[in-house]
Design a protein that fits this description.
148 residues; alpha+beta; Alpha-Beta Plaits; 4-stranded antiparallel sheet; 4 strands
């Protein structure tokens, strides 16, 4: 009988904590914002201008299409000044409105393939061909927390 009383008390406390958590979530000092993807790029020696040409043409074209379609909010190329050992030369940043479901990802992929006139095999091969210009040295995905 004592066990049942403790169990009920525990369940009630857990329930109150959940209600408190839900109420505090509504009163949070922030809200989820846009999603950012960062690619860390190490440019191969003697390839900086060639890689920047690629970014200014193909990469920009792809991201402008994404903006037009409403998938991308903004995109940026950042130069890492005074890079230390192991740090990238460039950071490519793409800001999206939100995360995509798997179905949405497939829909976007089809639209990009049609726009770029390339299927995933050709896009993958083209990425491999850029290996002489750059090395993907990492990346990260972040979500902005917008303060209220």
């Amino acid at each position: 009988m004592n066990y049942a009383k403790h169990m009920l008390t525990g369940l009630l406390a857990a329930g109150l904590m959940m209600v408190g958590t839900a109420a505090s979530a509504q009163d949070s000092s922030y809200k989820p914002g846009t999603v950012w993807n960062f690619s860390h790029i190490k440019v191969e020696p003697g390839q900086f201008e060639n890689y920047m040409d690629f970014l200014a043409k193909t990469w920009k074209k792809s991201n402008e299409f994404g903006k037009k379609e409403g998938y991308i909010v903004s995109y940026h190329v950042f130069s890492v000044n005074n890079a230390r050992e192991g740090e990238p030369d460039l950071i490519l940043a793409i800001e999206s409105k939100d995360y995509l479901t798997t179905a949405q990802q497939l829909e976007v992929q089809k639209k990009y393939e049609a726009f770029m006139a390339m299927d995933q095999h050709k896009m993958d091969a083209a990425s491999g061909e850029r290996k002489v210009m750059r090395k993907l040295a990492g990346g990260m995905e972040l979500q902005e927390l917008v303060l209220k």
